Amino acid sequence: MKPIELKVKNSYTKQYHQRFPLISKEAVINPDDLQEEGAIVHLVEPNGNFIAKGYYGNQNKGLGWVLTYKQGEKIDFVFFKNKITAAIDRRKPFFNDENTNTFRVFNGEGDGIGGMTMDYFDGYYLIQWYSEGAYSFKDKVIRVLDEIGDYKAIYEKKRFDTKGKYIDDDDFVKGERGEFPIIVKENGMNYAVYLNDGAMVGIFLDQRNVRKAIRDKYAKGKHVLNTFSYTGAFSVAAALGGAEKTTSVDLAKRSKSKTIEQFSVNGIDFEAQDIIVMDVFDYFRYANRKKLKFDLVILDPPSFARSKKRTFSTAKDYPSLIKDTIDITEKDGIIVASTNNASFGMKKFKGFIDKGFRESNTKYKILEEFSLPDDFHVDRGYPQGNYLKVVIVKKMS
Ligand code: SAH
Predict the structure, then answer these.
(1) C-beta of 186 in contact with ligand 1 (< 6 A)
(2) Which residues partner with 212 through β-bridges?
(3) Which has the closest alpha carbon to 322: 229, 382, 263, 393?
(4) For a FRET experiment, which of 15, 284, 329, 386 has its CA 20 to 30 Å from that of 125?
(5) Residue 1: what pLDDT?
(6) How far apart are CA 326 and CA 245, in angstroms?
């Protein structure tokens, strides 16, 4: 079968020659020629000259991903094997780390195949497919893992539709079914993980370095407020770092039992901690009324959230979130401001933080910044893939 030729608009050919890996709708002249998800496509210049090979996989970011710039390279089993083996080799330091047995082993376009990621949880693999097209490579990918061997089981999450939403399903693929939760280790901390219980597994691996910093540098003797706390992973790190007390706030009812569980698997008395199911914005009002102040406040909101009362978007509302936080932060206190919104970069994010402080007439100092950790390998041609931005700031007296 002859591959479909996607003609790249003149104004976009340069970007692909410079190895931009995403096939975006705006860039191609004939997107309607795409029919079957997973089909191999050739990107060509308007005059027909070859640029790159990729595949059709419609997701929120674009129409698919470039796989190779070599005209002679086949997209076959060997191709997948080479990419996955190289990715695993690159994670050797993680595989050899006694204190950590959970990390990302394959980071989509960062490891040469956009639309697919693979995480490792102490012998279990979790593959996430971001389009039907990516999913069409499943058999090859599984075969590679079979050849490499040495896994307990493989699970998957299908995040197909164009919003990247998770399709609820039995996520078990192969191997011996796990008994969940499994307890994984990260820098010596324990986390309970569920690989077959909906879209999220209990921990976000991309925050590893931030959790470590909180535990090792910022928590000792402190009153810590963890907002948008989910399973309380940051609270666990703070408690293990010697926090005087942690307060975790999340709207989701399940967050309470999940947080109790994360404390418990670390031998922390959860009854000495506060775990509150509440809208964070209501909590800010409550804390103000009660004149509560914290030494360390962690902000890690979802990019976009709609609750009964309001919608929150990081791109619009982060400055006001910072302002609310400043009011309940002690002098010389620390704010950990985080976002995973890929639609803006670090510079803009720092602008939001600056705006919040300026409007509060409060001085601050940036102590540290984090982006994705090394296992979330980012493609040089696609720095947008480094979506994580975490800034640790000190509120100056
Ligand atoms: N910081 C967490 C991850 C946060 S995920 C971690 O490190 O593991 C985002 C969380 O925000 C979800 O658990 C969701 O329930 C919660 N959430 C969304 N809107 C909220 C709101 N208005 N108030 C409180 N929690 C909210």
Answers:
(1) no
(2) none
(3) 393
(4) 386
(5) 67
(6) 19
Please provide the average confidence, as pLDDT, over all residues in the chain: 96
Count other Cβ atoms within 10 Å, centred on residue 7.
20
Contact 230 CB / ligand 1 (< 6 Å)? yes
Q: How far apart are CA 301 and CA 251, in angstroms?
A: 11
Contact (Cβ atoms closer than 8 angstroms) between residue 367 and residue 334: yes
Query: Which atom of ligand 1 lies nearest, measured to the CA of 234?
Result: 7
Q: Would you say residue 362 has pLDDT above 70?
A: yes
Q: What is the CATH number of domain 77-187?
A: 3.30.750.80
Give every strand in the sheet of 153-158, ordered side by side.
102-107, 116-121, 124-129, 153-158, 172-175
Residue 164 pLDDT level (bands cut at 50, 70, 90): low
User: Please, which residues have CB within 8 angstroms of residue 331's CB and are 6 or more apart in sequence?
Assistant: 395, 396, 397
Give yes or no for residue 317 CB within 6 A of ligand 1.
no
Q: Is the whole model's pTM more than 0.90, yes or no?
A: yes
Which fold, 4-68?
2.30.130
Across 272-277, average pLDDT? 98
Q: What is the model's pLDDT at position 162?
A: 61
What pLDDT sits at residue 163? Answer: 67
Query: What gap in Å lies between CA 16 and CA 1, rounded to an integer?
Result: 24
pLDDT for 169 equals 81
Where are the chain's structural domains? 4-68, 77-187, 204-395
Question: At 2, is the pLDDT very low, low, confident or very high (cuts 50, 70, 90)?
Answer: confident
| Rounded distance from Cα 283 to ligand 1 centre (Å) | 13
Half-sphere exposure (CA, 13 Å, Cβ side) for 220?
3
- Taking CA atoms only, the protein residue closest to ligand 1 atom 3 is 230
227: CA distance to ligand 1 center in Å? 7
CA distance readout (Å), 41 to 90, 281, 301: 28, 47, 38
Average pLDDT over residues 194-198: 95
User: Taking the domain 204-395, which CATH number applies?
Assistant: 3.40.50.150
What angle separates helix 346-359 from helix 314-327, to the nearest 10 degrees? 40
- 217 in the Ramachandran plot: left (φ > 0), alpha (ψ -120 to 50) or beta? alpha
Rounded CA gap, 295 and 331, in Å? 8
